């Protein structure tokens, strides 16, 4: 065999060996990747990666959960991509629960099978109308893209999935509702507060908390009457929410709030220092353009809040520049317009879980809140949201008439704090003082050396364990009146996230907070010139292929030059 033939044999053997090694490497890589799944996720919110709280929840499932994804095979884009995302996400849930093997799922295409269609209906996943491409035509057809969950005899579903945004939160939240006992939130309803059932009495101009209540399915929400009955707040309640009171609190009501906090529970108080309303003699039914004035919102909580180290001022904070559109009365109708009373608070505490994924809040007609130092030495306090230094506050008489008034910037400048959170061992407002009993009668504090008669309550002078308190100088941020603008003005949507994060923090159940805000963010390119998009499009279509051709030509010429100059 000649030298040339020997070289050819060696070259062929090397090529065959290289191909075999490459195939073995690919096979090995597939086996390893199948056993040890890992995804590189470069999205800002890691939307394609299962969050650790979701993994922990599935890994600790008490019993087996069966999941069926009803997905039609003939889905068209973008729904086909959404379907693939659903499959990948459910695979991640399965891998997270693989140790116990308690999360099992399968994909089903009912097609035209009557039995499978009946099964899907029983599992609460109906057919939905979606766009379908057939014979080069766009038609409206029906298809399946939903997920059903079975656990302990329960059946819950996400009947329609049209985008990946928020899907992980929906699934994790649903699994949690089915497998974990709900925590209980008590909402005060005895001092004219905003109600989760709306505003049937008209105390808040028809506004309530119905929008936020739609997002509180993870909690058991109960209304309570403070200061009435022997046990106005259930013993198993985890948090008390007082949203927008309009009537004075009795001493008994304040005692109930105080003692609930002393039990190591959580309390949220949303209260403005001023009320903006039309004088009764000037009220005209159906007329929105009538002038309104500001008066002190005297709910008589000053002494209680002062003992906890806070003061809500009798004022309205106004921002000359950093404000957002809000409902403004013009000639008897409401229009969206920028006005200094609709403050956009962008200075927030990014370290707090309450402010997770929140960049700004809208606080309409908000009052400033001040911290009174040295009142609660064992409590840690955080400023959640503040105004800019350009803000000013209007106290005393305040005329709200956007049509005619040119507001004069006051001299009492910011920044002002709108919201605080506090956690630690609080001292009771009633420690060592006479306290109101169930009948509202003041009784002296019990002698610590004398045992109380059976059934008589003993006040707690200090919280038995670290408690949590949130104070916001505004309640409108969570009301239906303003949250209904969430789709038109995204900043109002942050108010909903703020409220829900706060409920999680109060209930000491913050695992879902980082998942709730996960979503695909739109990041459009911004061009200085109108002709730039055309140039970019041309560069993508023509420039990129030309660049590859140029690279090939240069590489070919370099190799040719090397061959000509090569010496044996």
User: Mean of residue pLDDT?
Assistant: 85
Report helical residue fraction: 25-40%
Structural classification: alpha+beta
Number of domains: 4
Largest sheet: 8 strands, mixed
Q: In words, what does this structure look like?
A:
Strand 5 (145-151) and strand 6 (154-158) form a beta hairpin. Helix 2 crosses helix 3 (79-96). This protein folds into four domains: 1-36; 52-179, Glutaredoxin (3-Layer(aba) Sandwich), CATH 3.40.30.10; 198-445 and 459-513, Rossmann fold (3-Layer(aba) Sandwich), CATH 3.40.50; 529-562. It is built from twelve helices and 26 strands. The strands form eight sheets. It has an eight-stranded mixed beta sheet with strand order 8-7-9-10-26-23-20-17, sandwiched between helices. The chain is of the alpha+beta class and 568 residues long. The protein is globular and about 115 Å long.
Short recap of the structure:
The protein has helices at residues 3-35, 52-59, 79-96, 114-122, 167-179, 210-213, 251-262, 302-307, 480-483, 490-506, 513-516, 532-565; strands spanning 65-71, 103-108, 128-134, 137-143, 145-151, 154-158, 183-188, 219-224, 239-243, 266-270, 274-277, 292-296, 310-312, 315-318, 323-330, 333-345, 347-348, 361-364, 369-371, 379-386, 392-395, 398-400, 417-424, 435-436, 442-443, 467-472.
């Amino acid at each position: 065999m000649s030298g040339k033939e020997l070289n050819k044999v060696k070259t062929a053997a090397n090529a065959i060996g290289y191909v075999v090694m490459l195939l073995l490497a690919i096979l090995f890589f597939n086996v390893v990747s199948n056993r040890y799944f890992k995804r590189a996720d470069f999205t800002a919110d890691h939307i394609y990666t299962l969050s650790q709280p979701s993994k922990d929840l599935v890994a600790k499932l008490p019993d087996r959960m069966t999941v069926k994804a009803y997905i039609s095979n003939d889905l068209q884009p973008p729904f086909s991509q959404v379907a693939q995302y659903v499959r990948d996400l459910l695979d991640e849930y399965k891998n997270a629960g693989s140790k116990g093997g308690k999360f099992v799922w399968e994909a089903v295409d009912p097609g035209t099978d009557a039995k499978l269609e009946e099964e899907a209906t029983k599992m609460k996943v109906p057919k939905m109308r979606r766009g379908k491409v057939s014979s080069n035509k766009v038609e409206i057809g029906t298809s399946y893209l939903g997920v059903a969950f079975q656990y302990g005899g329960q059946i819950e579903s996400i009947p329609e999935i049209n985008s990946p945004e928020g899907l992980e939160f929906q699934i994790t939240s649903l699994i949690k509702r089915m497998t974990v006992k709900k925590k209980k939130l008590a909402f005060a309803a005895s001092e004219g507060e905003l109600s989760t059932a709306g505003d049937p009495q008209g105390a808040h101009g028809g506004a309530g908390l119905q929008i936020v209540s739609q997002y509180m399915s993870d909690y058991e929400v109960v209304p309570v009457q403070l200061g009435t009955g022997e046990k106005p707040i259930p013993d198993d309640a985890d948090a008390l929410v007082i949203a927008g009171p309009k009537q004075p609190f009795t001493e008994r009501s304040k005692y109930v709030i105080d003692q609930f906090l002393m039990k190591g529970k959580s309390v949220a108080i949303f209260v403005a220092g001023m009320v903006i309303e039309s004088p009764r003699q000037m009220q005209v039914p159906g007329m929105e353009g009538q002038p309104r004035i500001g008066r002190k919102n005297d709910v008589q909580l000053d002494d209680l809040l002062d003992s906890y180290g806070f003061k809500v001022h009798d004022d309205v904070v106004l921002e000359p520049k950093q404000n957002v559109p809000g409902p403004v009365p013009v000639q008897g109708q409401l229009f969206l317009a920028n006005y200094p009373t609709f403050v956009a608070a962008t200075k927030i505490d990014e370290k707090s879980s309450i402010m997770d994924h929140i960049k700004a809040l809208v606080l309409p007609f908000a009052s400033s809140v001040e911290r009174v130092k040295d009142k609660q030495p064992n409590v840690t306090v955080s400023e959640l949201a503040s105004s800019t230094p350009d803000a000013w506050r209007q106290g005393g008489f305040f005329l709200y008439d956007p049509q005619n008034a040119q507001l004069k910037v006051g001299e009492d400048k910011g920044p002002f704090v709108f919201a605080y959170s506090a956690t630690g061992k609080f001292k009771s407002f009633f420690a060592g003082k006479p306290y109101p009993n169930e009948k509202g009668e003041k009784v002296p504090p019990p002698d610590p050396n004398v045992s109380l008669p059976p059934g008589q309550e003993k006040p707690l002078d200090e919280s038995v364990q670290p408690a949590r308190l949130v104070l916001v100088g505004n309640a409108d941020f969570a009301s239906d009146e303003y949250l209904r603008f969430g789709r038109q003005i995204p900043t109002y949507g942050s108010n909903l996230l703020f409220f829900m994060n706060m409920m999680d923090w109060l209930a000491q159940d913050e695992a879902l907070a980082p998942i709730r805000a996960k979503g695909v963010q739109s990041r459009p390119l911004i061009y200085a010139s109108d002709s730039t998009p055309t140039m970019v499009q041309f560069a993508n279509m023509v420039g990129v292929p030309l660049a590859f051709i140029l690279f090939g030509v240069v590489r070919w010429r370099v190799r040719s030059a090397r061959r000509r100059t090569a010496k044996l």
